[in-house]
Amino acid sequence: FLEAFESLLRFAENCTSSLFETAYRPMAKEAAEPVKELFTDISLYILGAETTVESAVLRFFDSLFPLVYSRLINPGITDLSEDYTECLRLTRQDINPFGRYSKNMVTELSKSLWASRMLSQALGLGIEVINTTEHVALTKECSRALVKMQYCPHCQGLTLIRPCVGYCLNVMRGCLASVSELDAQWREYISTLEYLTNEMASSHDLEIALTGIRNSINEAILHAQLNGPQLSATVDKVCGQPKQQEGNLSSNNIVPVKEATETQTFVMAHPSLNNKRREFINYMKRSRTFYASIAERLCDGDLVMRDSSTCWNGEDVV
């Protein structure tokens, strides 16, 4: 799942980067770092870091506004000092140049990323439980019972006689009594996984949300461009007027709105998370009784005598 998450995030990041390279070339190079930071924050959030989707998205738009303002709305700005850039970042929060699109992006991503974050944490917990119970310590009584079951017939020269099924089950259930107590919690855990995978497959589809980032950013930039004059008037009052390039502006530096509105269809170039989810939850459902039936699993196979009327019952051959 983590590999699938990483693959999907890389794919969505490449889609988003291509938006700047194809539609907003004047700011493509400078926008690369904010885009990278956005998807790094998303990855950290899914993995359980103490951050929020809202802070990641708003930080991205804070970094994006100075670029949009100086490269698209006012492409003649030559002196983008640190102070002026910081003023633009802070002004973004007040004048809301990207309209509803920044908040919409927070809302859409929050639902999907929450389910993915919870699933990631749930899988980590499951691994912990399995690893812990895999190395459970055996009591002295259990060790004695296992030796008696497995090797006492050898003392009588009965090396081919194996334990009876009922005898094996009694010994294993005694040894694994503490482990089998996990049954109720394990069943609840499987139900939780099922709920989370269903959430991810329905309204919280991660693929749709992540690949939709590209379109959300495009719409946000278009909104800012269309409201350029009003934004410039407000920014000039708050941050002052920066230095402008003299003479006619090169048409290469101005991106027409029409070009930016063109959309491209991207084919999903990674394994579908939906398929992995279905396979995974079907497998996990089959393990719902794992801790309840662990003794039966251990006593099924070469350890016991099933197809013969002769077996070892702990005292004698019967």
From TrEMBL:
GO CC terms of this entry: cell surface; extracellular region; plasma membrane; side of membrane
Subcellular location: Cell membrane
GO biological process, one term: regulation of protein localization to membrane
Keyword Cell membrane among record annotations: yes
Subcellular location, principal: membrane
Record's keyword terms, sorted: Cell membrane, Glycoprotein, GPI-anchor, Heparan sulfate, Lipoprotein, Membrane, Proteoglycan, Signal
UniProt KW Cell membrane keyword: yes
Membrane topology value: Lipid-anchor; GPI-anchor
Superkingdom, taxonomy of origin: Eukaryota
Transmembrane spans: none
Family according to the record: Belongs to the glypican family.
Function summary: Cell surface proteoglycan.
Protein's name according to its UniProt entry: GPC5 protein
Originating species: Pterocles burchelli
Encoding gene, per UniProt annotation: Gpc5_1
